[in-house]
Amino acid sequence: MAQVKGTAVLSSLRYLRARFGEQALAGVLSAMPAEDGALLRGLVLASSWYPMGCLLRLMQEAERQLASQEPRLLQNMGRASCDEGLKGIYKIFLRVGSPGFTIDRAARVLANYYDTGELVVVERGERHVAVELRGLEGSGRQFCERIYGWMQRTLELTGVRNLRSSHSRCVHRGDPVCRFEGSWD
């Protein structure tokens, strides 16, 4: 069973609470399977591992209930997760190199959050980067949207201007891998 680190779970819960309020978060949790809701209402530890399916169901239910208020909900969850991670312990990546360097290092960090899958930099130029997400078991389209938002925010935090990004391929649309690209001026 695929696992996700508590830091990713916590950033999702914090985002939903901050953006929509405690009552909306409670509504999302109460609509989830009882075991998931109990787990997420309990003490979630940043250093512990949790079932990826639980986070997927949280994102699915949040999207079902709240996306009408925020169409890019999942991308914004990824952006918030990036803000927590890259402005915290991994902020050194933003200081020491180019956007490509930062994405390369950030891709290596994926294993700190998910026990399955890899994020591979397949193209890296002066003003362009492309990464592929491979083998993220137990995921859904929601994880792709979250990671897309995370990648956009990572590039923004490096100071790029006029970012143009795409999620050009996705296993949930029938492609063999998920591909995320960014280019800038």
**Helix and strand composition category:** alpha+beta
Helix content: 40-55%
Strands, count: 6
Counting H and I runs of at least 4 residues, what is the number of helices?
A: 8
As residue ranges, the low-confidence spans are none
The rounded distance between the terminal residues' Cα atoms is: 42 Å
- Supply Rg: 16 Å
Residue share in β-strands: 15-25%
Spatial strand order of the main sheet: 3-4-6-5
Q: Name the helix and strand elements from N-terminus to C-terminus, one letter apiece.
A: EHHHEHHHHEEHEE
Tell the overall outline: globular
Describe this structure in words.
With 185 residues, this protein is an alpha+beta fold. Helices cover 51% and strands 18% of the residues. The protein is built from 8 helices and 6 strands, in the order E-H-H-H-E-H-H-H-H-E-E-H-E-E.
Q: Secondary structure elements and their pairing?
A:
Layout: E1 3-5, H1 6-20, H2 22-31, H3 34-41, E2 49-51, H4 52-66, H5 73-86, H6 92-96, H7 99-109, E3 118-125, E4 128-134, H8 141-157, E5 164-169, E6 178-183
Antiparallel strand pairs: 1-2, 3-4, 4-6, 5-6
Helix pairs in contact: 1-2, 1-4, 1-5, 2-4, 5-8
